[in-house]
Amino acid sequence: MSSDGPQNDSNVYEDTHVHQVYEQIASHFSSTRYKPWPIVERFLTGLPDGAIGLDVGCGNGKYLAVNPNVFIIASDRSTNLVKIATQHRPHTSVAADNLSLPHPSSAFDFAISIAVIHHLSTPARRIEAVAAVLDTLRPSTPTTGTSSGGQMSIGKALIYVWALEQKHSRRGWDEGDEQDVMVPWVMKQKTTAEGTEERKTFNRYYHLYRQGELDHDIIEAGGLVLESGYEKDNWWAIAIRQPQ
Amino acid sequence: MKVLTVNFLTCAVKACKTSPLSFPLHFQDAELEQSDIEYNPSFLRNILPRVDWEALKVTANELGFTTVPAEKPNPAPTPTNPDTNPTETIKESPEAQPADDKVMRDLHTLLLETEVREGKMVCGNCGHEYKIKEGIANFLLPSHLV
């Protein structure tokens, strides 16, 4: 069991401090997540009709309804969240890990991974997660010589992560603070007979990104950043695969 | 899970990705359900260029659908002209419609309205089985395969 060493430790750590938490808070979490973020909305509505893409770490699937003219295969590590996401027709949601995605390489017009990669607990795993997203995108040079794909443009990814620099937020973190943090999720539950309310706190692991860190990880992962910025306590970037 | 989706899935085991045997995944014991989705010919025409036709034929055959044409239908009026503006070719083209209509409606039924509710998908390279329960496919790997 110890043969894979740190890699295995990270798996176990994320399983305890990310996966199991979302599995338990899925329904409550979902009820608080309904409004699409503007940059994500702009990215999705700007896609050509008939585009096919991925939502890696789809959560409750709130982005699946944004553009009815594209087809999205959504995935999440939490099967309870996938069950909620699957209600968004006509898309499909599957249970999958973002480091072992069940998709062919170089096949997709777009991919989004919104508020997901900050849950991975080592720099190497975060870069691997970016690389896994980029690998699904259609590269800049056609991989096949068939003429049927002639009209299709290269694939683009939108990645969003939580920022360290958010001094005006409720959490108040800022430059110089610890980047690896546990963030509480407080869930109120009605306990049985008496109808009394019980508060249960779940702690989720996050890596808070410094300015420039997401762009750096994308380059390390073999990507090219087309556009990047900061929106409401988050860093975001639109990237393609580095032309070969 | 829609039949269209299977065209965009492969084995989650990294070592299998480079093997042509891993795509498409193969159905076993599939239970199907028809849902009712509004026919949208322009959406269908736009996604067709992205569909891997050989893989779709394998999938359709495994699920018992026999109406898939041997060649991918190309509803665009002038598909081979490189000078054609891409936005032009995917616009509505009423005169090209009638001949394709039956084929396109059958494809709509197969790709978008047919759901796999239960069953499994098997990788042709490593043999790993991915279960589908209540319409949701599970690609989470056991730790020894990660």
UniProtKB/TrEMBL annotation, chain A:
<dbReference type="InterPro" id="IPR051422">
    <property type="entry name" value="AlkB_tRNA_MeTrf/Diox"/>
</dbReference>
<dbReference type="InterPro" id="IPR029063">
    <property type="entry name" value="SAM-dependent_MTases_sf"/>
</dbReference>
<keyword id="KW-0808">Transferase</keyword>
<feature type="domain" description="Methyltransferase type 11">
    <location>
        <begin position="54"/>
        <end position="134"/>
    </location>
</feature>
<protein>
    <recommendedName>
        <fullName>Methyltransferase type 11 domain-containing protein</fullName>
    </recommendedName>
</protein>
<dbReference type="Pfam" id="PF08241">
    <property type="entry name" value="Methyltransf_11"/>
</dbReference>
<keyword id="KW-0489">Methyltransferase</keyword>
<dbReference type="InterPro" id="IPR013216">
    <property type="entry name" value="Methyltransf_11"/>
</dbReference>
UniProtKB/TrEMBL annotation, chain B:
<dbReference type="InterPro" id="IPR005651">
    <property type="entry name" value="Trm112-like"/>
</dbReference>
<protein>
    <recommendedName>
        <fullName>Multifunctional methyltransferase subunit TRM112-like protein</fullName>
    </recommendedName>
</protein>
<comment type="similarity">
    <text>Belongs to the TRM112 family.</text>
</comment>
<feature type="compositionally biased region" description="Basic and acidic residues">
    <location>
        <begin position="89"/>
        <end position="102"/>
    </location>
</feature>
<dbReference type="Pfam" id="PF03966">
    <property type="entry name" value="Trm112p"/>
</dbReference>
<feature type="region of interest" description="Disordered">
    <location>
        <begin position="66"/>
        <end position="102"/>
    </location>
</feature>
<dbReference type="InterPro" id="IPR039127">
    <property type="entry name" value="Trm112"/>
</dbReference>
